[in-house]
Amino acid sequence: MTTVQLGMPTVASDPHGHLRGTESFPKAAHKALADTQLRRNLGHATRTIRAKRAAVVGEVDDWEELRRAGESIKADTMARLPELLVQLEEQVTARGGHVHWARDAEEANRIVVDLVRGTGADEVVKVKSMATQETGLNEALEAAGVAAFETDLAELIVQLSHDRPSHFLVPAIHRNRAEIREIFLREMPGVDPALTDEPRRLAMAARAHLRRKFLTAKVGISGVNFAVAETGTLSVVESEGNGRMCLTLPDTLITVMGVEKVVPTWSDLEVFLQLLPRSSTGERMNPYTSTWTGVTPGDGPQTFHLVLLDNGRSNVLASPDGRQALHCIRCSACLNVCPVYERTGGHAYGSIYPGPIGAVLSPQLTGISGPDDVNASLPYASSLCGACFDACPVRIDIPHLLVQQRAEAVAAHTRPTAQDLTMQAMAIAMTTPARFKFAEKALGLGRVLAGRKGRITGLPWPMSGWTNARDLPAPPQETFRQWWSRTHGDTQRSGAGPSTGEDA
Amino acid sequence: MTAREEVLARLRAAREAGKPASPVVVTREFRTTGALAPGSAEVLARLDETLTDYKATVHRVDTEAGVADAVAGVLSEARSIVVPPGLPGEWLTGYGGEVRRDGPPLAVDELDAVDAVITGAVVAIADTGTFVLASAASDQGRRAITLVPDHHVCVIRAADVVCSVPEAIARLDPSSPLTFVSGPSATSDIELDRVEGVHGPRRLDVVLVGP
Ligand code: SF4
User: Which UniProt keywords apply (chain A) (predicted)?
Assistant: First the structure.
């Protein structure tokens, strides 16, 4: 008899650097803060979406009950993840689909590249998917001589401008209409030179550009919003119809999903299809949601492959609190309400998962390799104001996870080096004293910092510059902000206050 | 170990390592019935509002006998249309252009050449301004026919109108493809403002049958 060695939870591979930037958050943030156009674009876009979200969330009188349901369904899913995936696999297979498993990014890319090659196609149409961005599938396809066409308008803007996404939902949020017009004029073959920057005209240019591709594509590649274990049903939530095109017209459909996207039952969608659109685009419902189950004779792709991706998710699942980060439904509400994100944009986070959720998810996916790992700085990319938790449709306690990860980084001595003391995430957002006050109370921040001994011996960076020289008593009465002000002076910059958080 | 065994083994180990202190209790205290009764005049009025809000054009008719006139009205400029195999013939009696039944299925280029498509819907959700197309329903048909033509006319019967998302989910059978449609194709990708008209049908008319 042989004993099979059990697999251990493992961190992500990151062959194309999509989960880790090249510089720490404070350095990258510092550059972003100097870009006034970027800040204007982000400010405008996040203000717009916050107002829309507030209005449609306000219409739903059982919103809190829905959030609690979303939270508990996700927690239950994580507690049964292996069984649910096996059930999903059985159902998809029974309905004529093929299921593949991928340990990491390279393996997922290899599977997809081989499947595409098997069809003989040298181009594919893609609907926006975080999972394939994470694995760097486009790069892998390109290396294999396959052209991948991103079809989501924002992804198209990012692809045409050789840029990186900066937001889950609106990867080109850092661009305004005038910039998008310029990118189209420069990069889109055959575009009308009289193109204006009117959003409708820009959308029409994208339509014309992609129409032929859709009507002739042999292979479509997608991600998944929700995969129902009970029925084997997959779903994609979208707006433009590019998702429907990719899911419907090609002969072959290849879908890549992170294992955490599974939900137990069809009826669970009654919760998520309420929570997601209102939280993400601030609409009662997004224009199109497609669901499909395996292969349907006479309707849509007759060959269907589902690739189930681990790539670090097992590592996240192994953390009792940290696994909450896997509950994320990628609505991006936490980005839109975050005063730090609003000022720095998504690129500063390095990872394709930006904002508050990215700050807790990316380091758990990749693990932290040492004090110089740029992802070690991410848990500090927050003011702990609490707006992200209030906005999160599945109640992920992001502030708690941030504080916990900071404490762990201190314990493991993996905090970034002193040169990063210029880090101003705190100061960036401390212009909203009311929120900060809320956060420090809610979080018991002083207690976390002081640990059991009741003395602060090693403050997490960026405050470590002070505690390196002094051993401070824990401030039992004083709030953290008062303490900060007293020891560091007033860092508030007048006139720079963000107009965030009215909606939460 | 195969990738499958390896991933499952990792996830089992992780599931145990990160196990919550107490078992998860799923709470479902949200509403599963809507504020307005299915098929009621009130729920239809709300659907009319939410559809219109997302830029669909709604045409109200009292009874199914009125559908043909409404369809003829909205399709007065359409030279040719495609219809699913089981679309009621009575809906088309006022229309003078070319009608192509999608059986046997039309090629994509043929779909691209027609001006419009007419379908029914399996259910509509008043709270959100959504209707759902079921591939298995003979008056709705395969997904491509409501995707490629630039103009979609959807006929919704009062009996199929519910108020809330949970009521709709409970009525749906996911074993064949479903498409939830809320307004014409749109994008929020430019400065997070919704603008209509990208890859799906840019014009959406709804004929709402009932009180
Ligand atoms: S963490 Fe919550 S708010 Fe942020 S993107 Fe995920 S689901 Fe949305």
Answer: 4Fe-4S, Electron transport, Iron, Iron-sulfur, Metal-binding, Repeat, Transport
Question: What DSSP assignment string belongs to A49-100?
Answer: HHHHHHHHHHT-TTHHHHHHHHHHHHHHHHHTHHHHHHHHHHHHHHTT-EEE
Closest CB to B129: pick one of A240, A284, A314. Answer: A284
Domain count, chain B: 1
Express each pLDDT in A22-67 by its tens digit.
888 888 888 888 888 888 888 888 898 999 999 999 999 999 999 9
Residue to substitute in A382, A396, A503 for testing ligand 1 pocket (most ligand atoms within 8 angstroms of CB): A396
Domain ranges in chain A are: 25-316, 434-485
Read off the pTM: 0.87
Q: How far is the CA of A392 from the centre of ligand 1 (A)?
A: 5
* A303 contacts: CB under 8 Å, gap ≥ 6: A98, A119, A251, A252, A253, A295
Q: Is the CB of A333 under 6 A from ligand 1?
A: yes
- CATH code (residue B134): 3.40.50.10420
For residue B175, give the chain A residue with the closest CA. A293
**Architecture per CATH, A25-316:** 3-Layer(aba) Sandwich (3.40)
Of B10, B97, B163, B117, whose CA–CA distance to A310 is shortest? Answer: B10
Domain that holds residue B130: 3-209
